[in-house]
Amino acid sequence: MPGKSRLLLTLGTSAIALLAAMPAIAQTQVAAQAQSKKDDIPTIETLVVTAQRREETANSVGMPIQAFSGNTLQQLRVTDPKDLSTIAPSFTVSQSYQGVPTYTLRGIGFNTINLSATSTVGTYTDEVAYAYPFMNTGPMFDLERVEVLKGPQGTLYGRNTTAGLIDFVTNKPTEMFEASVTGEVGNYKTHNFEGYVSGALAPGLQARFAFRTEDSDEGWQKSNTRDERLGEVHRDGWRLSLAAQPTDKVDIDFSYAGWRNKSDTLAAQAIGFTPATAASPFNAPGVVAYVASHQPTKADQADWAPLSTRGTDVGTGLGIAGPAREDDDFDALKLRVGWELSDRVRLVSLTSYNDLSRNAIFDWSGAPYEILVQKAKGDIKSAAEELHLEGATDKGSWLVGAYAAHDDILDSNRTLLGQNANVGTIRFFGSTLLATPFNSGGYTALQMSQAFRTYEDVGNIETDTWSVFGNLDHKLTESLKLTLGLRYSQDKQDYYGCSRDFNGNMLPNVNVVNRALFFTAYGPVAPISQGQCNTFDPVKSFGLVTSKLDEDNLAWRVALDWQATEDVLLFGSVSRGAKAGATPINAANISTQNAPARQEMLTAYEVGVKAGLFQRRVQANVSAFYYDYTDKQLSVYFADPIYTALARLANVPEAEAHGLDGDITWRASRSLTFIASATWLHTEVQGYTGINSAGQSQNFDGRSFLYSPKFQGGLTAMFDHEVGDGLRLKAALNGRWQSKSSADLEGNPLFAIDGYGLVNGSVGLASDKGWELQVWGRNLTDEYYWSAVSSNANTVVRFPGKPSTYGATLTWNF
Hints:
Blueprint (H helix, E strand, L loop, with lengths): L1 H38 L8 E2 L6 E2 L7 E5 H6 L15 E5 L5 E5 L2 E2 L11 E5 L2 E2 L13 E8 L13 E7 L7 E9 L3 E13 L2 E12 L4 E3 L5 E2 L2 E15 L2 E12 L7 E5 L13 H7 L7 E2 L4 H4 L17 E13 L4 E19 L9 E21 L2 E21 L4 H11 L13 H6 L3 E22 L4 E22 L5 H16 L13 E2 L3 E2 L2 E21 L2 E12 L20 E14 L4 E23 L3 E24 L4 E15 L2 E3 L5 E3 L11 E14 L2 E12 L2 E2 L9 E2 L2 E12 L3 E8 L7 E6 L3 E6 L4 E9 L1
Parallel strand pairs: 7-10, 14-19
Antiparallel strand pairs: 1-2, 3-9, 4-5, 5-6, 7-8, 9-10, 11-12, 11-44, 12-13, 13-16, 14-15, 16-17, 17-20, 18-43, 20-21, 21-22, 22-23, 23-24, 24-25, 25-28, 26-27, 28-29, 29-30, 30-31, 31-32, 32-33, 33-36, 34-35, 36-37, 37-40, 38-39, 40-41, 41-44, 42-43
Helix pairs in contact: 5-7
């Protein structure tokens, strides 16, 4: 393939250029040494990371890692995974129309709406897999550091991933007593509290308790048509950690963590219509004019169906009452036990149990009409066990182990579509069929006019995954190290579910209209009764959809690290990762919409350099990468005989991505530090023909991946300076910019995500007596931007980011 050849040549050239640059770098360092001694400027802080499941300095690990200390996260106000994009711009978080976050790293993501879907970007807390992104929607707090690992991470961590992973490392209990409390106030009637207490309970036993609460009592989204708001925040999180050392060879870490979220759900902004409904005579009266006259220009402009409309019962079509709000719970238990079997061998057991429950009401209409309102209910129970041996040799280290996990998942929602154009179409044609033999149920014109307002989508999934793995680091010479990693995994998934009638409201349209339309292609179809599935299987008629996935894969990594000088590391690697197959929970008219997508595979080629320059006043990390993608999982359209185009999952046979990724930290002076990072990226689908939103076949060859801008970059300045009398002046300024991208493969202008930039800042005083006062602002320029675009089969909607927020924080350390 010409594209692949060009990229391999580019990577090879990059490697040669990096090698050639080493003498010049060394000379520069020598020339700068005298100046450094003269200025007596401190070097950059060296972070210890556990990217390879053992403690190492970040600059000694031959893989692309961005790591941030807890102090940096606190000063930059990183309290949510989506905030990480401000300092690690190659990582982005988008909003799906069911409120499930979509993670993308270096352009590799999975555009699903389902609570039950795992991500291409794995997330871990203290080595425990949080395999489902919704598990991370509580607050972030009391962190020792965060590590962003780029590229496949299938050989050392429990669940395979194709894009990379993020590891949240929490602060551990201390021997000495420590405590802190923080209070915050801000606009939108914000009042947040955070704190911790840590210390020894008895000899060989320490404990730490930490918490964070977040409340904003005034919503930031305003209805365009009435005096209503959405956007209140009410969430809290906690963590109790215990550390015990019953003997000098055994250590035990236990934690119970959890969060609760009762925040408002995000409202969408309608910007247009799908091809099937743009000129439909069945659009709700006034909705076309509303969308034309309310094109959004600010983040706070939005609209949603009035509660008086959606909360009212219409015949058998029961409404959805209650506020548009989350009501979610998450509890996580972890037990880690380590035994020192000898001076060089250690046995580790890691046991975990995660329990997520979601109950939420959200409105994705983007207009004051009942176009798409949903009430979601979901539960995920995930238990896992890892057992591994780790050891050291004279020339390196090794690790072998096994991992097993079992997940039980319920992913369901009830939908209201009372004023959706597609519903109007079905009701109209249904009224013309009432006098035909298809109306064997004797439905009336009134029943048909009230039908298809509400239904349920239900999916029950059981997954089992197990793997065996090994990793070896071996020094070939004093400066050259070889790393070999291997993991064999097996993933099984059992699914049963469907779209089904609710309270008899689907019976008139399914038993009359759907049966009439299916008759010409499939012959007579038996009607359904109340509560039954209305998803149609051409072989089995209406009924439950079932499927099984039973797949295995081999993930591996081969890497060479060359320590060219004490402060310069060059590395190259070839690795392969996998993401397990997935089954969607869709509004499924045809059973093929709920058919699973098989596992995807990504092979990554990477070369890079990590260089400490100017006597460690500058740290530069740069890498070039090429990704060869097979069977990429993608949510696409399906040509439907009734609704033109509906969603399903598919595998794109071939795709590729390549780019340049880097970050530079410069300690400009004793008080001032700059951090810059950027990613240049090219992605493309190859040789794929699918269905577009008009239900027509389209060739998508050469199209970019969803949510994959060609450039993402960030710049941070951090200032910390003594001003006398035991006071320090602390300030931070952070900016991030990304170029345009798209939320679909078609290139439809409605689905474009414009390039945008965000600026955040803070300034404050800290005292050696233990207190710190800070004023801060996020999105200081009040930039209007949106992270995602979606369609609800009628309107096309944007999901805006927050407008400018600001406030003050007071911390007291004891």
